[in-house]
């Protein structure tokens, strides 16, 4: 845990103790509003509705128990009513603050995901691939693990757009992404690098197994029904496969796969070609 993480926990603990001490020496019930400080800090640390509800309930219980223990001889009926009203007001203020914090956190997460994912298909984009490769290449070399890259694009995709329209083309891209996501493993990295071109990175996978998997993907797409406005669109893909060799950077790795893909397209399409 870094110093920033430790500081927030120290702040929460200190503000909670300070609130209890102040309310022990002073009988002004509105001082319990100070409990908002550690409560809000906790929600900033973990901005979820579950945290909000739990903290809110525990805070209300803490107020009732503490007030009874601190001032039980002086706790009158009207004090209890006032204490409940104070607790309700505190809960409302706390919930409103938590709402905006949770909403802000979700927006931040969505923006982060948007920066690393393709908006049409929902899979990763090239930027994510670059960041991932910066970490996985040194790790693969250190652990002496194989790594295979599958690059494919949709055969005659321009013709699909020209014949059926761009909405049909978008449907094809989205469905291919869904179909392949259902086939790959959680550890595999699926990326749309532009247009109708995609990449699947297979960590800890040999070229031999990568070729077999690429053939499975090719057949899966070929056998999938793509229906647009009641019309079936026959879709196939051409695939290039290559294995990572030590010393390559991402560009050289992609270039080898692209050369294999080019051969697949030049020699008939709807096939798998691999390169060493």
UniProtKB/TrEMBL annotation:
Offer an example of a GO molecular function term for this protein. Answer: diguanylate cyclase activity
Q: Which GO terms describe its cellular component?
A: plasma membrane
Entries under InterPro entries matching the protein: Diguanylate_Cyclase, GGDEF_dom, Nucleotide_cyclase, Rev_trsase/Diguanyl_cyclase
A Pfam family that this protein carries is GGDEF
Keyword Transmembrane helix carried by entry: yes
Determine if Protein biosynthesis is one of this entry's keywords: no
Give the protein name, as stated in the record. Answer: Diguanylate cyclase (GGDEF) domain-containing protein
């Amino acid at each position: 845990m870094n110093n920033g993480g430790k500081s927030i926990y120290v702040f929460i603990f200190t503000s909670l103790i300070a609130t209890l001490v102040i309310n022990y020496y002073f009988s002004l019930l509105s001082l319990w509003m100070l409990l908002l400080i550690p409560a809000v800090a906790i929600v900033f640390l973990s901005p979820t509705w579950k945290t909000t509800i739990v903290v809110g309930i525990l805070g209300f219980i803490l107020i009732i128990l503490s007030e009874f223990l601190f001032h039980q001889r002086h706790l009158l009926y009207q004090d209890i009513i006032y204490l409940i009203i104070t607790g309700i007001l505190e809960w409302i203020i706390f919930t409103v603050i938590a709402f905006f914090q949770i909403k802000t956190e979700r927006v931040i997460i969505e923006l982060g995901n948007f920066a690393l994912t393709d908006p049409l298909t929902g899979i990763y984009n090239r930027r994510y691939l670059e960041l991932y490769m910066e970490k996985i290449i040194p790790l693969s070399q250190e652990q002496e693990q194989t790594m295979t890259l599958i690059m494919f694009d949709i055969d005659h995709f321009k013709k699909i757009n020209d014949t059926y329209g761009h909405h049909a083309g978008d449907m094809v891209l989205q469905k291919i992404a869904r179909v392949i996501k259902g086939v790959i493993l959680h550890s595999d990295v699926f990326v749309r690098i532009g247009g109708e071109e995609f990449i699947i990175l297979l960590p800890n996978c040999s070229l031999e197994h990568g070729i077999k998997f690429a053939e499975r993907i090719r057949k899966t797409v070929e056998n999938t029904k793509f229906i647009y406005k009641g019309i079936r669109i026959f879709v196939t893909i051409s695939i290039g496969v290559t294995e990572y060799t030590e010393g390559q950077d991402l560009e050289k790795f992609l270039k080898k796969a692209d050369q294999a893909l080019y051969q697949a397209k030049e020699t008939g399409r709807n096939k798998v070609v691999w390169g060493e």
